Amino acid sequence: MDRKNFLRKSFLGTSMFVASAAMGKVLVNGIDELKALDATPLPDITGFNHIPNTNSKIMDNTVLHKAATRGQANHGWLNSHHSFSFANYYNPERMHFGVLRVLNDDVVAPGMGFGTHPHDNMEIISIPLSGDLEHKDSMGNIATIRHGDIQVMSAGTGIQHSEYNRNKDAEVKFLQIWVFPNKKNVTPRYDQITLDVKDRHNTLQQILSPSANDAGVWVHQDAWFHLGAFDKEHAVDYTIKKTGNGLYAFILKGDFNIAGTEVNSRDGFGIWEVTTVPIKALSQDAEILLMEVPMSMNA
Predict the structure, then answer these.
(1) Which of 10, 44, 86, 118 gives the lowest tally of CB atoms within 10 Å of its CB?
(2) Which CATH class is domain 3-294?
(3) Residues 6 or more apart from 151 whose CB is under 8 A from it?
């Protein structure tokens, strides 16, 4: 595929956000906002929207996002690193990887959090890494997610929710991931599951798929997510499940070699136009998140 075909603007999508201390005093921030990027929206989104380094030895069908190149917003109560453009961090070369639009690595201070704010037409996945994150939404759901849990919301026609750190003496660390859906204006829904983290030792544990009958949570998109925790030198091959999909890996801990490229903690690595992806842990207790997503809305 021609590189120029990848240089696309993101689909439009907006949502506002407020921050509150234990749901108390409200401060409007605009932190959780996707702003209009072009007056004429494109009919499709394709590719990874990243201008590759022509001097790079990385293959033409891969993109590497080093941890230090991510956007960062430190609001005191929230320290967030953005793999893709988000809120006040705007990089036209870092808009999305296929339908993967947002990958935020968030740390929330004790007793603080995201006050009630709306979303629509987005699949929103939260993966807690440590601490206790409490969720409340306009459908009446009240729940707490912790390490080992996976949370998903289909925003659909519209939903309001809040999330905050219920602990007064410990941070919450979690990944916030947004995926464009393949169906618009669906009925909003919420789900969460608890997985046994031991089941991902030296293997890939599926945590998300398009089917409610498959392992993990499900979304309105032909996407599959997996988590893995590996001993040093352990290797696996990931097989792409649907033609036209790509794979974006986010390194949670340690070092890996993915398809010949060495990646380190908090790096992101995308690859497409392949059928299998070889993955090898280069350090002990290395952890990885794999996100297989369509590279086009019409895939």
Answers:
(1) 44
(2) mainly beta
(3) 125, 126, 127, 128, 135, 143, 145, 190, 191, 192, 217
Break the chain into its structural domains and give their ranges: 3-294
**Entry pTM:** 0.84
